[in-house]
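Hi support team,

I submitted a single chain yesterday and got back a structure, but I'm not sure I'm reading the token output correctly. Could someone confirm the output below corresponds to the sequence I sent? I've pasted both exactly as they appear in my results page.

Thanks,
R.
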Amino acid sequence: MSAATGKKAVLELDGKKIELPIYSGTLGPDVIDVKDVLASGHFTFDPGFMATASCESKITFIDGDKGVLLHRGYPIAQLATQASYLETCYLLLSGELPTAEQKTDFENKVRNHTMVHDQVSRFFNGFRRDAHPMAVMCGVVGALSAFYHNGFDVENVDHREITAVRLVAKIPTLAAWTYKYTIGQPFVYPRNDLSYAENFLYMMFATPADRDYKVNPILAKAMDRIFTLHADHEQNASTSTVRLAGSTGANPYACIAAGIAALWGPAHGGANEAVLKMLDEIGSVENVAPFMEKVKTKEVKLMGFGHRVYKNFDPRAKVMKETCDEVLSALGINDPQLALAMELERIALSDPYFIERKLYPNVDFYSGIILKAIGIPTEMFTVIFALARTVGWISHWLEMHSGAYKIGRPRQLYTGETQRDIKR
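Hi R., thanks for writing in. Yes, this is the structure output for that exact sequence:
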């Protein structure tokens, strides 16, 4: 639990003073407990919840000013380079990195749950082939609640833990099948002899006719890092959505589907997709310099640079850039759009205008380039994000249900009509 600092904030309302206790976490700013304001007949007003701590959590800490991202205390760069995605999943879910024995046991559990019920495959047929993949993901993940509802008890620790494993295991299968469905290819079933990232890429790109399909280990490593770097990001819009839905006692698969819906928005999970669209609009390397001049005059928006949370640098971007360089070197790709992206990066890192405003390439900029190089279409980018973030969502859901919580009920500042009568 958070610790009382002994300090109090004093709020004066209508001549009366209200003492509000102040709490300290292990890191980050102190938090003022404002719940006693309600007893005075007032609400607090904080659009976007920019200054409101909606919960207490031990999972992830962010310091945007210093460029810090910690999962259970471990820096994200260390996890991305020294641990696998499944080890990071174990950490987020349990609080500690696994021992060798725990790692093997957890990986086996995930492998045993990668298949989905055969009837789930029929849900895909209800979608148009040109439906956005995120629309399909919302539907099929939500549909899992129909397969794991009867007998599920949210108060049962074992039920909650197996749900977490199932989600981590099954989301890659559903994501790959979503891609296969949109391009009209048959579904490829998971293989238990492959690693998590290898299995996903195998289900994405193998075909029944290509039984000897081999996953490039450099691409599997890059995919694993992308998953790790997107695994959790504290109380963002989609995570808050999962917690809010979960506070009602809703089925956990429905809660994750709600998180996917929230992530779909271009202001949240669609940023790397927006990077590729921006590159399409720029067209060629010769147009980069004029484009960047238009950015300076605010005629156009620069996507994939700077970050709403990180004010100095994105701690995930350095690892992602290194991975990007590895992938492009290994594949020897001569793609004009990728050359265009590298020129954008060069200008942003050398031009005083961008340096002074801290418009540095962020994780979305590099992840978009990597995914394109791997051969993943732009419209699948946010699905990849959802796949990676599922473990963060279910970790927060687990944490909430493991302690005391209340159903979410935000308030409002009403500015509509006062009571009036119908006159006829």
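A quick pointer for reading it: The chain has 17 helices and six strands. Let us know if anything else looks off.

Best,
Support desk
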